[in-house]
Amino acid sequence: MTARTISKDMPDFPDTVRLTQEAPGMVGDTIEGTHAGVRHTRRRYAATLAALIAASAAVAGCTTSAAGPGVTTTATSGSSTATTTPTATATATPSATTAPTAAYPADVPAEARANTPDGAKAFAKHYFAQINKAFTTPLTGLLPPLSTNTCKSCANYEDGARDLVQNNQRYDRLPLVLLETVIPPEGEEGATLIDVVFRQEPARLVDSSGKELSRFTSKTGIFLLHAKWQSGVWVTSEIQLRQP
């Protein structure tokens, strides 16, 4: 099997390693030396991911807040499903509070605690919801209990949240809206891989007075989250960005 290599190109959303075109299972990729049926499965899966991204782009303006305070609901078409993600309440002056990190968080949903493929997908949704919360509140300490101590991308996200707290800054809306989670055809020993189709929103980085300092660009893409079942719970061991 072709080895997975990682480039140092970074997306707008902070510090996630990107898979290069040598990575198996990415959109449009086939792996030399595998059986025709496997290549067909990967091509079909790649086409599915491409369709999900296309559908997401088509409904980029369809975000509503009808689900109630602190929730954003995004409707998607085709094989995508509607996904509801929690938002953080906007505050004029961000708090420097640090969430406890000693124990596995009690707010991890029951469905994200099951040692099943669906449980892994639910965990991936929860993990990215915590990233959103960390960057919009802002708040540190949310991600380490959900990550292995060797996950560099996880550490980068936590560092980003810490910088926001220290600089009294935050993002004014969810940076990421999750559109779909899918288990890809390729596997990894000791981990469950989850493709997370997302839309990056044009969130504004603001200071304590609300002044805009910068903003993300709108785009859609796919994160590849590596989830490990460790001590009876899911944790994130790596996050990568699939390169279309």
3D structure, described in words:
It is a single chain. With 244 residues, the chain is of the alpha+beta class. It has one domain. The protein contains 3 helices and 12 strands. The strands form 3 sheets. Strands 1-2-12-11-8-7 form a 6-stranded mixed beta sheet. The longest helix has 23 residues, at 36-58. The protein is globular and about 50 Å long.
Produce the secondary structure layout.
Elements: E1 6-7, E2 17-19, H1 36-58, E3 63-64, E4 71-74, E5 83-86, H2 117-136, H3 152-166, E6 170-171, E7 176-182, E8 192-200, E9 204-206, E10 212-215, E11 219-230, E12 233-242
Parallel strand pairs: 2-12
Antiparallel strand pairs: 1-2, 3-4, 4-5, 6-9, 7-8, 8-11, 9-10, 11-12
Low-pLDDT stretches = 1-11, 20-38, 61-102
Strand order of the largest sheet: 1-2-12-11-8-7
**Structural domain count:** 1
Helix content, binned percent:
10-25%
Rg is: 18 Å
The total count of helices amounts to 3
Euclidean distance between termini CA atoms: 20 Å
Order of H and E elements: EEHEEEHHEEEEEEE
Give the strand tally.
12
Task: Describe the global form.
Answer: globular
Fraction of residues in β-strands: 25-35%
**Structural class, please?**
alpha+beta
Mean pLDDT, all residues: 74
